[in-house]
Amino acid sequence: MLTIKVLGSGCANCKKVEAIAHQVVDQMGVQAEIVKVTEYPDIMAYDIMSTPGLVVNEKVVSYGRIPSPAEVTTWIASALETANP
Q1: Would you say residue 46 has pLDDT above 90?
Q2: What is the CATH number of the domain that holds 28?
Q3: Buried b (16+ CB within 10 A) or exposed e, 60-80
Q4: Which domain holds residue 18?
């Protein structure tokens, strides 16, 4: 199962990124745990410069912007290939 983390304080952009992640997971029919990381020290552990951030299986794939659903689909597909070679 994938772990997808949305890094951010809960701002509007963070909520958009979370919504896109849920949408893509549903469309792809994959099992994924989507976790919100809202505590500043926890966010800083990922060494990102700005939020919102998106992490797939502990790999930072995006930060400081709202990725498109197509980008998120690509990142999730790539993570699935890495997890199941």
Answers
A1: yes
A2: 3.40.30.10
A3: ebbbeebbeeebbbebbeebe
A4: 2-79
